[in-house]
């Protein structure tokens, strides 16, 4: 059983897959307490893998985003296998502090200050910028490095940072700009 906050269908609003239709499975609970967190993720209902799959297959997209809270507290190979059996491409958005199953298709690591990244594979690093030193995250072995404004509030500072350090790419929370889930 896994604690699920919500399952919904929308467009991916951030990072490499921005604009792609996706089914979001938002898990409840997190092992980090970030002051800028925009998710109320303590509430939820316990669901079996079969119940999760039953909800996911109601939507036509092939991409599923396991997010949170911290999905690494809940997910395992059997859930990812079940999603693959339904033809789904499985993405995980994680703070990186939990070891993930090896059968995930795409890993977005959004590390937080004070958390130790324990991942063997990272496709993209995505940092919410609140003025902190993010240069340390360039040491993470990822294919892409994104930095994004915190709730669209400090966009000018993020742009200036990227222009100074061009290894970073801009990620906007387009779902917030478009006012979609």
From TrEMBL:
Its cofactor is Mg(2+); S-adenosyl-L-methionine; [4Fe-4S] cluster. Residues 17-181 form the Radical SAM core domain. Substrate binds at residues 11-13, 26, 67, 181. Keywords: 4Fe-4S, Iron, Iron-sulfur, Lyase, Magnesium, Metal-binding, Queuosine biosynthesis, S-adenosyl-L-methionine. Binds 1 S-adenosyl-L-methionine per subunit. Coiled coil: none annotated. PROSITE patterns: RADICAL_SAM. S-adenosyl-L-methionine binds at residues 36-38, 69, 110-112. It is an enzyme of class 4 (lyase). The keyword Iron-sulfur applies. Mg(2+) binds at residue 39. Its EC number is 4.3.99.3. [4Fe-4S] cluster binds at residues 30, 34, 37. Pathway: Purine metabolism; 7-cyano-7-deazaguanine biosynthesis. Catalyzes the complex heterocyclic radical-mediated conversion of 6-carboxy-5,6,7,8-tetrahydropterin (CPH4) to 7-carboxy-7-deazaguanine (CDG), a step common to the biosynthetic pathways of all 7-deazapurine-containing compounds. This is 7-carboxy-7-deazaguanine synthase. It comes from Phocaeicola massiliensis B84634 = Timone 84634 = DSM 17679 = JCM 13223.
